Amino acid sequence: QVQLVESGGGLVQAGGSLRLTCAASGSTLFFTTFGWYRQASGKQRELVAQINSRGTTNYAASVKGRFTISRDSAKSTVYLQMNGLKPEDTAVYYCNAVVESRRFPWGQGTQVTVSA
Question: Which of 12, 39, 65, 84 could hold 45 in an S-S bridge, CB 3.0 to 4.6 Å?
Fold first, then answer.
């Protein structure tokens, strides 16, 4: 059973940076498009960044130009570099495959809190 473990979250002031890490245990699984999602309190989970096996990336409009997704397939790890953080980026961040049929059980996520 593949387990996804997200880490790197924390409390940061507006304008600050964080780097999130998504590690997969049990398999090398990043031949599929993988993404970072976030879920703010009381809101639905949303996809904010994705990267395919060739390294092509896409971003939600709300984070474009501030967030950068990358992957290290040899390490089964996906990263999210977040710069210029805003209070509205506050959420629990998760990683998983983008195609629903290829998803793994969701991990615990990592909390990102941005203070004004």
Answer: 39
In the sheet with 77-82, reading across from the earlier edge strand, the strands are 3-7, 18-25, 77-82, 67-72
Residues 92 and 103: their CA atoms lie apart, in Å, by: 18
Residue 37's identity, in one-letter code, is Y
DSSP 101: G
By the 10 Å C-beta count (0-12 exposed, 13-18 middle, 19+ buried), 35 is classed as: buried
Alpha carbon of residue 54 to chain centroid: 18
Q: What is the pLDDT of residues 8-32, one digit of tens each?
A: 999 999 999 999 999 988 766 567 8
